[in-house]
Specification:
Strands 9, 10, 11, 12, 13, 14, 15, 16 and 17 form a nine-stranded mixed beta sheet that branches. Strands 1, 2, 5, 6, 7 and 8 form a six-stranded mixed beta sheet that branches. A two-stranded antiparallel ribbon has the order 3-4. The protein is globular, with a radius of gyration of 28 Å. It has 695 residues and is α+β, with helices and mostly antiparallel strands. The chain is built from 22 helices and 17 strands. The chain binds adenosine-5'-diphosphate and magnesium ion (MG). Adenosine-5'-diphosphate binds next to strand 9, strand 11 and strand 14.
């Protein structure tokens, strides 16, 4: 396999554009891509035609405006290129207008009431900053999705807006440092994607996985992840074939799949791409998730992207490595080596610290979902409390800056920002704190709370916007400064002083941290029902409006969509549980009990055998267990009926979190306890042991 040749072979990238487009058109398109210049329809026509010819060569017959509605996954509607001719034949045709705008019949996507029924139409608009590509005979055109009145209905548009806000403010800062060469600042993301692979047959035999993406029942198997023998372990042949296939598919689509390894839990794995611009990373991560599932089919496997497919073993996350970069390739979170670079680094670092401290609520809710509630705070992922890890060295530097005392490291002097050079900061990975939700890792931050099934857009809209907002405030202050270096120094010192409660280097999983965080006044929003409503807090609406990311109405409707989604997921889970309990487990246990009774009868009628203590004990236990199971299932049904009476999305979500989930938990215990004592042949679906060690 020639990887360089394969890489991006299905993508209409810069190279292809340059090859296929007339020079002037190419230059004009680049202006749109790199500087957001408006695209002339005459240019669009030429681009569309070239794109179509190229796509047809690659076997495409259709095109689709590929968009990201509020469902968190992508949507597509395919139109063929065919246009009838007078002689009853067809030609392959694709116009600039078709490239630039689309009008899917999109009335059934969640909009939280933004689209009134009289204007059900949604529009899609080409996002030229993310390359078009060919997949399965279709030309995919990444697009934004909005309503007739211009209200945003998707995840891509606000992400682009948040990037624009960040660009604007970061450039102001760079100019203050005398940087005149950078034309653009964009945020970068590299997302480490965790996933589970199980045998397809196991999937097919489990209604819960089919309907909800996770197991709702399942006793702990004799072996889980306690031996830690899976993490970075040798990859099994079948999985290895899968990963190879996956890499190839992703490379074709220009996705820089780089690292792959086994994760902590049995049958858990990870794929990390090389980082890229956030918008592209977000599009590509959607493709990664989709391709993971598709390729699994080909290998008789099933890919689980749920945050917590199995109780008792680790769930899956998506570490969101984030930084800011200029178009000239300068990473703004790289400490650098000269005093000016160091000063600039410290300013951007301070901005992130302040942003996280001021907007813990937003970061927390950007990763809140029914699925991720199982991870956050469960000692396998960061807690629900947001804090920042900087590492010992950097914290010492900050402390000495703040107190104006000598830095205890190598230089041993009092540092003045913008004048002195920072001591060398360690970049190695040994110093990493893997329990921190928001950790500085040498030249980027790693936001570790993101769930494995999340769109990258949500969390990054938040990170971009909150950092942009602080940079705005910093730029306002510094632009007025008379002595820049002194003002910079004071700004950083003030910022550290005012926001240091968010810094935490210790073990985030410990109980002491919960106590300590409370003393520091940090937020601890335990679940999605508690976290999501904060989206529409006054502070947040003002923040989004100030930065041109969301309107108040968009925030309110989105809050509703997220809360409703949470309740819908839990409804499906509860219904599935009840059904499995009543239709599968209950009758299966009864069958086993009947068989046991038969045995007792037979044994007793045989003259020589009178001792049936084991059977009798089992019969009693199973019989009691099954009664409890049935009662719990009925209790759950009753609660679900009650949910129908609750209208307000916030109240409903809280009802699920506080009333429904505890009963689901109890119902599960009834089943899991019986699974442990029931004969294998009666248990109605594969056990954890079967599933986890099936590949
Ligand atoms: P680890 O598992 O130790 O966190 P990985 O190598 O698996 O490390 O993942 C690190 C991720 O961070 C990769 O996706 C990498 O491309 C990404 N990354 C590196 N530099 C940056 C940056 N400047 N901005 C965003 N992401 C980055
Ligand atoms: Mg990581």
């Amino acid at each position: 396999m020639n990887v360089p040749e394969l890489f991006g072979s299905s993508v209409f990238n810069r190279q292809v554009m340059q090859d296929k487009l007339p020079r002037e058109i190419y230059k004009s398109l680049l202006k749109t891509i790199d500087e957001g210049a408006p695209l002339d329809m005459s240019v669009a026509n030429v681009v569309a035609n070239a794109m179509k010819d190229w796509a047809v060569e690659k076997g495409a017959t259709h095109f689709t405006h590929w968009f990201q509605p509020m469902t968190g996954i992508t949507a597509e509607k395919h139109d063929s290129f065919i246009t009838p001719t007078k002689d009853g034949k067809v030609i392959m045709d694709f116009s600039g207008k078709e490239l630039v705008v689309g009008e899917p019949d999109a009335s059934s996507f969640p909009s939280g009431g933004v689209r009134a029924t009289f204007e059900a139409r949604g529009y899609t608009a080409w996002d030229p900053t993310s390359f078009a590509f060919v997949k399965d005979g279709t030309l995919y055109i990444p697009t934004a999705f909005f309503s007739y009145s211009g209200e945003v209905l998707d995840k891509k548009t606000p992400l682009l807006k948040s990037m624009a806000a960040l660009n604007k403010q970061a450039l102001r800062i760079l100019r203050l440092f005398g940087n005149t060469s950078a034309k653009q600042v964009y945020s970068t993301v590299g997302a480490e994607q965790e996933y589970f692979l199980i045998d397809k047959k196991m999937y097919e035999a489990r209604k819960d996985i089919i309907f909800t993406g996770r197991t709702l029942f399942g006793a702990k198997p004799p072996k889980g992840q306690e031996l830690e023998d899976h993490y970075f372990g040798a990859i099994k042949t079948r999985v290895s074939a899968y990963m190879k296939d996956l890499d190839e598919e992703l490379w074709k689509m220009g996705i820089l799949a780089k690292t792959k390894h086994n994760e902590v839990a049995p049958c858990q794995h990870e794929l990390a791409p090389v980082f890229t611009s956030t918008n592209v990373a977000s599009d590509q991560n959607q493709l990664v998730m989709e391709t993971m599932k598709k390729v699994a089919e080909r290998h008789g496997l099933y890919c689980l992207l749920h945050e917590k497919p199995f109780a008792g073993i680790n769930g899956s996350g998506k570490h969101n490595n984030w930084s800011m970069s200029t178009d000239t390739g300068l990473n703004l979170l790289d400490p650098g080596s000269t005093p000016a670079e160091n000063g600039q680094f410290m300013l951007f670092l301070a901005a992130v610290i302040k942003a996280v401290n001021l907007h813990q609520d937003l970061l927390r809710l950007s990763v809140a979902s029914a699925g991720n509630d199982h991870r956050l705070g469960a000692n396998e992922a960061p807690p629900a409390i947001v804090s920042v890890f900087l590492g010992e060295e950097l914290e010492q530097v900050l402390e000495s800056l703040e107190k104006g005392v000598k830095y205890s490291g190598k230089g041993k002097k009092t540092m003045k920002l913008g004048v002195d050079t920072l001591p060398e900061l360690p970049k190695d990975t040994t110093d990493r704190n893997r329990t921190s939700p928001f950790a500085f890792t040498g030249n980027k931050f790693e936001f570790r709370m993101v769930g494995s099934s999340f769109s990258l857009a949500g969390p990054n809209i938040i990170v971009n916007t909150i950092v942009a907002d602080v940079l705005k405030e910093f730029a306002d202050r510094l632009e007025k400064a008379i002595d820049f270096n002194t003002a910079l120094h004071d700004l950083v010192v003030d910022t550290i002083r005012e926001n240091k409660r968010i810094l935490f280097n210790g073990n985030n999983y410990s109980a002491q941290w919960q106590e300590e965080a409370k003393k520091r006044g940090l937020l601890n929003l335990k679940n999605a029902a508690e976290a999501l409503p904060h989206f529409a807090d006054k502070k947040n609406i003002e923040l989004f409006e100030r930065n041109g990311v969301f309107t108040a109405r968009e925030v309110e409707t989105r809050t509703d969509i997220l809360l409703e989604n949470y309740s819908k997921i839990l409804t499906i889970e509860a219904l599935t549980m009840s059904e499995m309990a009543k239709k599968d487990i209950f009758p299966a246990i009864n069958e086993y009990i009947t068989a046991l009774c038969e045995t007792v009868k037979d044994k007793k009628s045989a003259v020589s055998v009178i001792n049936c203590a084991g059977e009798e004990k089992l019969i009693r236990k199973l019989s009691d267990g099954n009664e409890s199971l049935f009662a719990k299932a009925e209790e759950l049904d009753e609660l679900l009926l009650q949910t129908k009476e609750i209208d307000a999305s916030e109240k409903l979500a809280v009802f699920f979190a506080e009333k429904v989930i505890p009963v689901m938990r109890e119902l599960r215990i009834c089943a899991d306890d019986m699974e442990l004592i029931a004969a294998k042949k009666y248990w109605p679906f594969p056990t954890y042991g079967d599933i986890l060690f099936s590949v």
